[in-house]
Task: inverse folding
């Protein structure tokens, strides 16, 4: 394999693994996909170690010196469409259906798959919050309050995300304002079950993917990656709890005025 072609193959493999990681793919799946692609492209002595936020790989071309590569993946979002596209790419490459140039183009197409429109995300948060409030025993007032709180939380997360504000701070503000909204409505509607409405709204902020991935990584003996994901889930859950507590303390502080 020519040197330029070899370098393109290595870039393809690492780009594919990075795409999977930064879009919510499992650690073991990213590592397995990279190894399959390396065998399919006849990259010799390819070794890779994948963490939640990093890729460490090495290879040795025939008659050449060993090559070491590192990729940092600091941000993780959820876009399973891109993950599935990379998985499909690796399967077709393993079956011999794609050449290297075609695989490179397919990867570019996978990485260019658009994200969910902001309006659709807000609608999902509204519907999700309302449904969770209903599941927890809420009736029409709780469902409506939770839906509005979910809308507020989604707007905050989107606006803070555009400015790359820390996720912990974002969750504190979103959870706090959602809770304050429920408390404010309860002042005018005493029959409102604040707890049910608040819990329904907070469910859209919970780190379900991080928690699930962390447990799965630990089951697959990826203890370091699993611990990182579980720590991320705990920090997010703690941020949500802090936001709720701060909102309740603020409401108590204003008790002499509004209650």
Result:
């Amino acid at each position: 394999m020519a040197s330029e072609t070899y370098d393109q193959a290595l870039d393809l493999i690492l780009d594919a693994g990075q795409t999977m990681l930064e879009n919510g793919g499992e650690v073991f799946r990213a590592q397995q996909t990279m190894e399959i692609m390396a065998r399919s492209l006849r990259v010799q002595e390819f070794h890779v170690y994948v963490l939640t936020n990093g890729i460490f790989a090495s290879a040795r071309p025939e008659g050449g010196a060993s090559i070491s590569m590192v990729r940092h993946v600091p941000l993780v979002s959820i876009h399973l469409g891109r993950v599935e596209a990379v998985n499909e790419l690796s399967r077709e490459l393993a079956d011999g259906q794609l050449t290297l140039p075609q695989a490179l183009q397919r990867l570019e197409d996978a990485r260019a798959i658009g994200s969910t429109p902001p309006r659709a995300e807000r609608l999902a948060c509204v519907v999700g919050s309302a449904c969770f409030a209903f599941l927890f025993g809420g009736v029409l007032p709780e469902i409506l309050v939770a839906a509005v709180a979910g809308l507020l939380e989604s707007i905050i997360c989107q606006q803070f995300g555009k400015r790359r504000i820390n996720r912990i701070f974002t969750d504190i503000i979103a959870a706090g304002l959602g809770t304050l909204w429920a408390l404010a409505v309860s002042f005018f509607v005493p029959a409102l079950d604040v707890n049910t409405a608040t819990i329904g709204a907070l469910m859209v902020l919970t780190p379900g993917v991080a928690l699930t991935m962390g447990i799965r990584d630990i089951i697959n003996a990826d203890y370091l990656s699993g611990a990182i994901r579980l720590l991320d889930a705990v920090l997010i859950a703690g941020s949500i709890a802090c936001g709720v507590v701060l909102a309740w303390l603020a409401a108590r502080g204003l008790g002499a005025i509004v209650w």
Summary: The chain has a mean pLDDT of 90. The two ends are 76 Å apart (CA to CA).
